[in-house]
Amino acid sequence: MTTQTSTPTLAHTRDELAAALAEQDGRPAPGSSRPYRRAVVMTMGALHAGHLSLVARARELADAVVVTIFVNPLQFSPSEDLARYPRDLDRDVALLSGPGLLRPEDVVFAPDPQVVYPDGDPVVRVSAGAIGDVLEGVSRPGHLDGVLTVVLKLLHLTRPDVALFGAKDAQQLAAVRRMVRDLDVPVAVHGVPIVRDDDGIALSSRNAYLGGEERRRALALSRALRATGTAEQIRAAARQALQETDVDYVALVDPETFAEVPADFVGEALLLVAATVGTTRLIDNALVEVGA
Ligand code: AMP
């Protein structure tokens, strides 16, 4: 077995990105039955195996891949971790160059904020509407609007046929799907399952903030998702499992609308948890059978 690596094209500016995309567009599509020409995976860097699973899936789905690495100031509130968010582009590009991932014709777009927002903060923004008012939207006001605004900009800049997002950020995935539907954005959205460590913790760039003892306490989030029973029993058991953390929310919702399911609900629902461990805010979620 070979473990060949290859380095993708690195673009920092809009011109560099446009040139790299023109290269991709100019290449004859291989005579395959793959439906998509170009896939995009949007990230904030500090990559881990969760991000790489999106890239591997993109590689399978499309002829050419663009990975964006951009810590988007618009989706951080002043009290959040924008300044200390981990950044290491060389490491990220090395990871993306691993076997089965990016090739020389693929692109890593790593712009500075002034490249993405040349006129400063955008005056016109995307509103996540009702989806942005619950859960993450309550704890992080404006967060989903900031996400959707940059997602739409990056879709325009990278012109993909398919865009991949992780189920780890379930509310973000639902909001992106809704934006694409409501605003007729010409892209297919593909959700990718959550990648977890062996102990069950969902991989996250923010796990790097956790000290040893905090990491043990952080396991409570994935454990909380194993709750069973009626809607009320599931909510109570998940809260119970999170008692060693500072719970932000426990929610059992319709996976599309994010409305809480009623006490007598029977069927599949999305259980979401958010909690702070030490100073690190973590989220996790899973589909659960309710009332079974
Ligand atoms: P981020 O860099 O945190 O903005 O994440 C970039 C993309 O990777 C988003 O679509 C996330 O949902 C996805 N992602 C992050 N962590 C995971 C994970 N553990 N499993 C699957 N996808 C993930």
Automatic annotation (TrEMBL):
Residues annotated as catalytic: H51
SUPFAM superfamilies registered for this protein in UniProt: Nucleotidylyl transferase
Pathway(s) it belongs to: Cofactor biosynthesis; (R)-pantothenate biosynthesis; (R)-pantothenate from (R)-pantoate and beta-alanine: step 1/1
UniProt-annotated location(s): Cytoplasm
Binding residues for ATP: 44-51, 166-169, 195, 203-206
PANTHER family hit by this protein: CYTIDYLATE KINASE/PANTOATE-BETA-ALANINE LIGASE, PANTOATE--BETA-ALANINE LIGASE
Record function comment: Catalyzes the condensation of pantoate with beta-alanine in an ATP-dependent reaction via a pantoyl-adenylate intermediate.
Lineage of the species this protein comes from: Bacteria, Bacillati, Actinomycetota, Actinomycetes, Micrococcales
EC number: 6.3.2.1
Residues given in the record as (R)-pantoate binding sites: Q75, Q172
InterPro entries (alphabetical): Cyt_trans-like, Pantoate_ligase, Pantoate_ligase_C, Rossmann-like_a/b/a_fold
Residues bound to beta-alanine: Q75
Protein name: Pantothenate synthetase
